[in-house]
Amino acid sequence: MRAAGDEPRIGPNAVIQTMRALAELEDPKVVDTVRRAAALPDPLPEGMIPERWFVRLVDVIRAQLPALHADAVLQRSGKYTADYVRAHRIPRPVQVTLQFLPQRLAVPLLLSAFSRHAWTFAGSGQFRVEGRYPGTIVLEHGPTCRSHPSTDHSGAYYEAAFEGLLRLAAPHVHVTEEACEARGATACRFRLNIGD
């Protein structure tokens, strides 16, 4: 989200939940090193934050931690972000409605809501859904893939966040990153396996 001439902004939970996950999984010295290297204010201000803070935080985590550790932090962060959104941003009547609708109706409805609010989790990145039901989520220029090329798995944050939220509509959904900009693809692509 941004006005003309303003820098892109993103929801603060991307940073808040990533720091929470980092503190749970890594030594306090590592947490302090990452916070200082990412130049994050403490405490974070209220409301939307510059997306560059999240981009910088992800870059520092990937630079400071082994790949498997970085992915574990980002996966847990994505899960916590989904948990927060479910608890605080999606009204309970909407959640109940999604659970009672057939998945073939509920999943597209929820993905449509993702599209309308994509700036909260993708910043200046572009979000869309392609293909027939259940579709493939496409995220171009996502914050987790901006400036840290990787030969390893790097979609852990968005896999966990999308999966956690889509479980409102499809309890057994599994989200898998099939292509990633950080590994040279034109966009990050996430396959949805709806399950039974």
Descriptive account of the structure:
The protein is an alpha+beta fold and 196 residues long. It has a single domain (9-193), classed as Alpha-Beta Complex (H-NOX domain), CATH 3.90.1520. Helix content is 50%, strand content 13%. The chain is built from eight helices and six strands, in the order βααβαααααββαββ. The protein has helices at residues 13-25, 28-38, 51-64, 67-88, 92-100, 103-116, 119-122, 156-166, and strands at 9-10, 49-50, 126-130, 136-140, 174-179, 188-193. It has a four-stranded antiparallel sheet, covered by helices on one side. β3 (126-130) and β4 (136-140) form a beta hairpin. The longest helix has 22 residues, at 67-88. The termini are far apart. The mean pLDDT is 90.
Number of strands: 6
What overall geometry do the principal axes of the alpha carbons give? globular
Tally the helices.
Answer: 8
Beta-strand fraction estimate: 5-15%
User: What is the arithmetic mean of pLDDT?
Assistant: 90
* Number of structural domains: 1
| Strand arrangement across the biggest beta sheet | 3-4-6-5
In CATH terms, what is the fold-level topology? H-NOX domain
Low-confidence stretches: none
Q: Approximately how much helix is present in the residues? A: 40-55%
From the helix content, strand content and strand pairing, which structural class follows? alpha+beta
Give the distance, in angstroms, between the N- and C-terminal Cα atoms. 36 Å
The CATH superfamily bears the name H-NOX domain
- The SSE order reads EHHEHHHHHEEHEE
